[in-house]
Amino acid sequence: MAKEWSRGGVALHRDRHAPATDPYFGVRLWLQAETRHGWVWAYNLEHLDLIKRFVQAPLREGIPWHDHGRKMTVVARLPAWMQQAKNRDEVLRAIARIHASLLRT
To answer: Which domain of life is it from (predicted)?
Structure first.
């Protein structure tokens, strides 16, 4: 993950093909799975459930501020490949793998 200064703030950019790490502590996140497009990761089970519900939704209504380029919600900040319907099954399989890994421990 590389830090980049942008208008007085720090923007964190990471390689989508590298495992996700916590930006503060630098440790690898526990809830993650790799796909051919990149990594699906979550900070906790609630975050993972939110991603799953968004990806499963057959109809996603537009958010009023989304048209202006401001992405203020967690799901609006998901990578484009995760938001595409053609990748829905792959993302849901990755989420299922994450859940299965929790049952093994």
So the answer is: Bacteria
